[in-house]
Amino acid sequence: MVRRNKYGAVKVRMDGYLFDSKAEARHYGMLMMLANAGEISSLIVHPRYPIVYQKQKVCIVELDFEYRNGDREPVFVDVKGVYTAMSRLKHKLFEAFYGAKVAIVKSR
Predict the structure, then answer these.
(1) What φ, ψ does residue 77 adopt, rounded to 5°?
(2) Between the N and C ends of the chain, which has fewer C-beta atoms within 10 Å?
(3) Residues of the chain with pLDDT > 70: what percent?
(4) pTM
(5) What is the number of domains present in the chain?
(6) Contacts by residues 55-61 (CB-CB < 8 Å, ≥ 24 positions apart)
(7) Which residue range is the domain that position 88 belongs to?
(8) Residue 1 is assigned to a structural domain of this protein
(9) Which residues have C-beta within 8 Å of that of residue 49, sequence separation ≥ 6?
(10) Tell me: the pLDDT tens digits for 83-102?
């Protein structure tokens, strides 16, 4: 029996990656076009960042994409159809521990 996503998202396999939604796969396609044009570099799909406090692992924040925009700082992106309380909490933890903002791409 195949479990459906409670928000109606459909998983998509592309270039060896499994994306949680069609919107995430579309955003990956757009980023690949920008990478091929030389506009961005160092694209990482599904980067994982551990959150450790006083030697205790709290959680792992997995974002959708990380890349560099020219020679600037890295850009961190998460594609969201529904922005849940858990997503907000993990983004706040990421921002507090790594000192960088997460750009949210709305899929709807």
Answers:
(1) -130, 140
(2) N
(3) 93
(4) 0.85
(5) 1
(6) 58/93, 59/90, 59/93, 61/90, 61/91, 61/93, 61/94
(7) 12-106
(8) no
(9) 60, 61, 62, 63, 94, 97, 98
(10) 889 999 999 999 999 999 99
